[in-house]
Amino acid sequence: MARKGPDFVTPIRRVLIALMTIVLIGLFLFWRIDSPRAERMRVALIDRFVPGFEWAFAPVTKVSQMIAGFQSYARIYEQNQELRRELQKMQAWKEAAVQLEQENSKLLAQNNVRLDPALTSVTGVVLVDSGSAFRQSVLLNVGAQDGIVEGWAVMDGLGLVGRIAGVGQRTSRVVLLNDPSSRLPVTVQPSGERALLTGDNTPLPFLDFIEAVDNVRPGDRVVTSGDGGVFPPGLLVGQVAQGSDGRMRLLLAADYGRLEFLRVLRSHPAETVADSDAIIRPDNSGAMIGPQRPSSPVEAAQAADPLSAGLTEGGGE
């Protein structure tokens, strides 16, 4: 049986490991020494050996950059998803706020549903949308028995919708502002320019007969002017918008897509004064003076014809 010789590999391996450990500990201690001479030696070693290992450091650098890029992309993606979720929540809150605002306006308007004619408005429910390609109108469940009169203004709680153009006993027809037969005098605020709102069977009726177009800008508020005595002044109609054809149009304040409850505004005509002497008016002292009635037929004749009265007085003198 062959006999093995002495094993020299194991002692040499142990010695090399010990030397490497000592060198590494010495290098670590040398690298931690805070001394100008040690710093110069470290810089010299780096300048001598590190440039030669750029080929070895390049893959490590690229991998590090790729890892940093992926981490940055992951953070951006998470932030983007978070912003999307917040945007969806904000849109949901916005929609809920708009619905609550409209519902609140409609509920406030419903306080006068089928009210006593002595009050100022009557609110009815839209029975059917009878609009067509040539006519824009809706039908309400209030009519002559509720005191509705043709020509009265109709609102939806947000803005003006149209006017009553046909009254039955229990129903009435409302012609909308975008109907081709609709003509409404309006005032543009804050410039005060007068215009005529003309329906053209589109969601954006146009403003006609504007004296100074330069004073009217998109976003200006538009209200009824009260000209003609048909509608009360100051009712909100909408906002000015410039159409694709360059004409000034109106973005209606009323929500025509969800007409459910409409409020009919009573507009009683002004009282005509036939006899001005019958009006009670204050005198200079503040006391109220009623109508002066003549005490005799002569005074009545003089009051009726002051010229003849003056001649009579002159003849008497």
Could you explain the architecture of this structure?
The protein has 317 residues and is α+β, with helices and mostly antiparallel strands. It contains five helices and 14 strands. Helix 4 (297-304) crosses helix 5. 36% of the residues lie in helices and 22% in strands. The protein is rod-shaped. It folds into two domains: 14-112; 121-265, Thrombin, subunit H (Beta Barrel). It has a six-stranded antiparallel beta barrel. A six-stranded antiparallel sheet has the order 8-7-6-9-10-11, with no helix packed on it. Strands 13-14 form a two-stranded antiparallel ribbon.
Write the layout of secondary structure elements.
Blueprint: H1 9-32, H2 36-49, H3 54-109, E1 121-129, E2 137-140, E3 153-155, E4 160-167, E5 172-176, E6 183-189, E7 193-198, E8 206-208, E9 221-224, E10 236-242, E11 248-252, E12 261-265, E13 281-282, E14 288-289, H4 297-304, H5 306-316
Antiparallel strand pairs: 1-2, 1-12, 2-5, 3-4, 3-12, 4-5, 6-7, 6-9, 7-8, 9-10, 10-11, 13-14
Helix pairs in contact: 4-5
